[in-house]
Amino acid sequence: MPVKINYKNNSSNKISSNLVLFTDEKFNIITIKKYISKLEFSYINDLLKTSDLKKSLLVFELSAKKKIILVSLKNNVLSSDLENLGAELFDRINYGKNSQYFINLDSFASKYKNLVGHFLHGIKLKSYEFNKYKSKKEIRHITLNVARDKNKFLNSKNLKFKALEEGTFFARDLVSEPGNILHPDEYAKRLKSLKKNGLKVSVYDKKKLKKLGMNALLGVGQGSVRGSYLVTIEWKGLKNNSKPLAFIGKGVCFDTGGYSLKPAKFMEDMTYDMAGSAAVVGLMKSLALRKAKINAVGVVGLVENMVSGNAQRPGDIVKSFSGKTIEILNTDAEGRLVLADAITYTEKKFNPRFMIDLATLTGAIIVSLGSEYAGLFSNNDKLSKELINSGNKVQEKLWRMPLNKNFDKLINSKNADMQNINYVGGAGSTTAAQFLQRFILNKTPWAHLDIAGMAFSKYGGALNSGGATGYGVRLLNQLIEDYYE
Asked: In terms of residue numbers, what domain contains 99?
């Protein structure tokens, strides 16, 4: 991380270093007068007369060694707006080898709920970078000296941000790893390290999965020299034995498509086909770090979809953990096979209050929603509304898509209980979700999040600088905070 944050007691003395100061939405600078000299005040006041006051952030270069950045706060500013402002600030100061800034938020800290926490959270999220494989690393150090009593700031509410950052960064790290490093064997090994955070981690290897009858999951990974795994991660934040919330993730560490081979172009991106599982893992880590008052379980299926003499063939029929049989018409429709066994197992083993699965499942969802929304499919209106509201709050947006029994005919098979792809054409994301819904046996409230367009960004977004986004960690944490804790 190139950003270091120091907390200093509030001071009204003139500051000689670079300054980040907050104003109202009209850039009224009277409140910051005590931090700058009369000459600086007069100079900035004159420049503001010809500045674009519709912007949220203005930079004034006073000299080669000093700049003043004014951040405008609207009256109705949301927590997500504060995080965006922090991220925008990072973009403006993220250059050069070393830089220091003094940030004063006192004028507005009492007016906006947790202004400091949300603003710094945006800075930290934007500052993430994955450079562990670069032999020559660009060394940058940004120090932010925040006018705030450290002891007063580091309360439970603000420690939540640190837990969220660690969980999100863990998810981003996992997604960013190349396939030759983060194969299923290594992934399962890394998940065992979560035990030190107070999580119960159980790893089911190929032998155990075969005994359980998870042939849908095992079929996907049978062409790889690596193992296939189901890993459960449990957090018990309540003393009672209340039903847990369940989160399930697709963990295809690399996806060639199998014998239904993907085109060579962009196949390198298939290292992030395990982003759903990474979101689940990051969430579970965050819940443990912030000692969430909830019982929760994360379940991830870890496989590698490869081509070999032992790989699954188009036309194969497998018997899933649920007992239902599946005809494999396309080996590149593999994520739903992994999730099918994971969903049924989660429901039977943990009897959860609800199940939410996350997966980079279909290219069709990108055609529908691009990189603005993840697709939401659900059998429960209440859970859907809660997810949509939570997503809007943290800028991890969802758009609800349809499920209907009439779609079932598109995945009915003549040779088995169902087939894993709709060859009639159309409704690719919906029929994938419809397929998953068949593996819920006890009418448990369920939501499927197709995050194919959201898990990875080549160009960067508001709170990430390009690459793995960690989409889902903050969304699901917000859901838990707002509705279940």
From this structure: 3-153
